[in-house]
Specification:
This protein is α+β, with helices and mostly antiparallel strands. It contains ten helices and ten strands. The chain folds into two domains: 93 residues, Phosphorylase Kinase, domain 1 (2-Layer Sandwich); 189 residues, Transferase(Phosphotransferase) domain 1 (Transferase(Phosphotransferase), domain 1, Orthogonal Bundle).
């Protein structure tokens, strides 16, 4: 278990000088190495003293998995320069990355369809590379995808190591919003889990909302297990919905065979890029969602006035 004590700008951490928060998460900092190289420093949070009895086991888990990650080499995976432990906190040093993630990009509003396909296609390529090296991400969220006009980087770093540790020890490290149904059903993560998560992200990018999220966690998990798409059906052309729905099948064997196979079929379903139906649907969905939230706020305000 971890709790947050942020590193302040100017602080010396191991051989690094902290320059400030990266904007990519509370535990990811912009830093400068002792030789002057700028990089991102991903740190675990402070250790909870009650967790100390399992420290050695986690340390072994961390160093084994960090070593695996440093051997990876793909243009759309964040490159890891080194790793270590300092004053009880574990760290990974990685290449600098764009200070914008997919969640923030989607939050800014309309994303052109070709940009969506390009981003998801780059991520799919990175995921299939991971799978070829015996690694599954398992916990893919929009916060793990760093984007700029010229770069897309999938972050598989310190949080992935912590999350896989939690899962191995019987916990659930992610919310149903991001979670693959395999984790909720107690199955082991593997490549089909990443195909599921990529489909989840595609639905968010194209429609402006998650496909299964409702007002409570129990209903959300039930919708995932039952493949209940009623919250989002009719907001995309039928061929596009069919491609996305295959990603989110509860049975892993019925999903697309790879992440890149899914993206290829999604591109076919979306057409040549001139049809704007999907983009208009997404924009309308966002508008309806914003209007509903505004009306809800007004109603709650009116009740307080009564």
């Amino acid at each position: 278990m971890f709790f947050e004590i942020p590193l302040e700008p100017g602080a010396i951490f191991d051989r690094f000088t902290i320059l400030g928060q990266s904007g990519l998460g509370l535990d990811i900092y912009e830093a400068r190495e002792s030789d002057g190289r700028k990089l991102l420093l991903q740190c675990t949070l402070e250790r909870d003293p009650s967790f100390a009895e399992r420290d050695d086991a986690f340390a072994e888990w961390f160093f084994d998995n960090a070593a695996r990650l440093t051997r990876l080499d793909h243009p759309h995976l964040i490159q890891i320069y080194g790793f270590g432990r300092h004053e009880g906190r574990f760290w990974l040093a990685t290449q600098p990355a764009p200070c914008l993630d997919l969640f923030e990009l989607i939050g800014r509003g309309r994303i052109e369809r070709q940009r969506t396909l390009a981003v998801l296609g780059n991520v799919a390529s990175a995921l299939d590379y991971l799978h070829g090296n015996g690694i599954s991400h398992g916990f893919l969220t929009p916060r793990d995808i760093f984007v700029s006009d010229s770069a897309v980087l999938l972050n598989i770093g310190i949080q992935w190591i912590v999350d896989t540790w939690i899962l191995e020890n019987g916990g659930v490290p992610c919310s149903p919003k991001y979670c693959c149904v395999d984790i909720i059903l107690g199955q082991r993560i593997g490549p089909p889990c990443d195909v599921y998560s990529l489909g989840n992200l595609a639905w968010l990018a194209l429609v402006g909302r998650w496909p299964f999220i409702s007002n409570n966690m129990t209903d959300t998990m039930s919708r995932m297990a039952r493949e209940d798409f009623s919250l989002v059906l009719g907001q995309l052309p039928t061929p596009v919905e069919a491609v996305l729905r295959r990603c989110l099948r509860a049975d892993p064997g019925k999903r697309w065979p790879s992440a890149t196979a899914f993206i290829a079929e999604l591109q076919k379903a979306l057409g040549d890029g001139h049809d704007t139906t999907a983009i208009e649907c997404a924009e309308n969905a966002r508008t309806r969602g914003a209007l509903a939230r505004w009306v809800d706020c007004l109603l709650r305000f009116a009740k307080r006035r009564e």
